[in-house]
Design a protein that fits this description.
It is a single chain. The protein has about 200 residues and is α+β, with helices and mostly antiparallel strands. The protein folds into two domains: about 90 residues, Beta Barrel (Ribosomal Protein L25, Chain P), CATH 2.40.240.10; about 100 residues, RNA Polymerase Alpha Subunit, Chain A, domain 2, CATH 2.170.120.20. The chain is built from four helices and 13 strands. The protein has a six-stranded mixed barrel. The longest helix has 20 residues. The chain is elongated. The protein starts with a strand and ends with a helix.
Length: about 200
């Protein structure tokens, strides 16, 4: 997976007053946990945008003083009115221990159902994967080359090498749905088929 490098400053004070002062300086209070150390630190808000405001999922190299950790984004708290980033949680990635990440789904190919007037629907934009961080893909590719109108690809139809998909197997990842125009196009063909059947 692709990795972003983020530099942070370790915090000695972790109270509400300290957090408010940091935000006034354009910084965001953060914490990383899950490994041997629990570290409170701060990062400039601008340095977090490439990680948070993106459809992609990244691993993160945290440079925190003398500590260099590999982690992933665990949780983000936003202000309910301004959407300002208030706090960020990171989880350290420990060698030999599985991680759970939400990986974007990338639809590829050309659906005959869409070409016939159907509408492509994608209920699941990300799949929840569990496995070693080194096995995690940047995206999960799902082919729609064989999808006709009314057909779908479900979670059970998707496989990712060396990782486990945690979403419910019956959930629909992508589907081709009928539209008014596609149903109107099918109507004359259906009538013609019925007439032919009567003649026989």
């Amino acid at each position: 997976m692709k990795t972003l490098v983020i530099k942070g400053d370790i915090r000695s004070n972790t109270g509400k007053v300290s957090s408010k002062e940091l935000r006034g300086e354009g910084k965001v209070p953060c914490v990383v946990y899950g490994g041997k150390l629990l570290i409170h630190f701060s990062v400039y808000s601008a340095d977090l945008k490439a990680l948070i405001y993106t459809p992609n999922t990244y691993l993160v190299q945290l440079n925190l003083g003398s500590n260099v950790l590999t982690a992933h984004l665990q949780d983000v708290q936003f202000h309910p009115v301004s959407d300002e980033i208030l706090h960020v949680d990171f989880q350290e990635i420990v060698s030999g221990k599985d991680v759970i990440l939400n990986i974007p789904v990338k639809v590829k190919g050309n659906s005959p159902g869409v070409r016939a007037g159907g509408r492509l629907a994608q209920p699941i934009k990300r799949l929840r994967l569990k496995g070693d961080s080194k096995s995690m893909p940047d995206v999960v590719e799902v082919s729609i080359d064989k999808l006709e109108i009314g057909q779908s690809v479900r979670v059970r139809d998707v496989s990712v090498l060396n990782v486990t998909i945690l979403d419910a197997p019956a959930n629909t990842v992508v589907a081709v749905e009928a539209t008014r125009s596609s149903m109107q196009a099918e109507a004359p063909a259906a009538k013609a088929g019925a007439k032919d059947a009567k003649k026989k």
